[in-house]
Write a structure and sequence with these properties.
Layout lengths: L10 H15 L4 H17 L18 E7 L6 E7 L14 E7 L2 E7 L14 E8 L4 E4 L6 E5 L7 E7 L5 E6 L4 E6 L6
Helix pairs in contact: 1-2
The structure holds fe (ii) ion.
Length: about 200
Amino acid sequence: MTTNDLSSLHPRLSRFVEDCLSAIDAGAAPAAQVDAIAPLMLDLLAGDRHFLSEANRTPNPDHYARNPIYFADRGVMSLFALVWLPGQWTPVHDHGTWGVVGIVDGILEERSFMTQGHAIISDAGIELHRGGVVLLTDGAVTSFVPNPDHIHETGVPAKRKMAVSLHLYGRELNDYHAYDIERGTRKMINIPQYRS
Ligand SMILES: [Fe+2]
């Protein structure tokens, strides 16, 4: 369920959201926003992790589940629980905003993509190369800023177990660029609630 009602959240989660909103209200640059919010996410995950509802933790057999938790007024922030069954991945994508990601259960894999120095100025002629891989274990926190694009794919390989992760973005994230590596193109797509 899409919500901006803090009272419907577990007390630890609503406190986390309030603290994030206070950090956002400070109006700092994206890098400073993630500097402020990443430790809040770390503290949230360091305690009892039973703060997600059953709906938040529900997987989908057809694709990874993107379960909304909280949408702030004015679109300044959105928070989702993503549930990854083994073998479920995002497309290669960017975000158009900053974000902070924390792992509740399992291991989330992030594979990065980057240009070799050229700026992406149109939706074609984009030459992306694989960067490194990051394995985020439960309790881990990562973040990104659009500097310029932070392009990656995330998911769980078929040989690993289900993962659950928290994704907080600096806007109401309902669209992003999806990249076609072989064709060197990208396309802005609407993201249904189940994709991130
Ligand atoms: Fe992402």
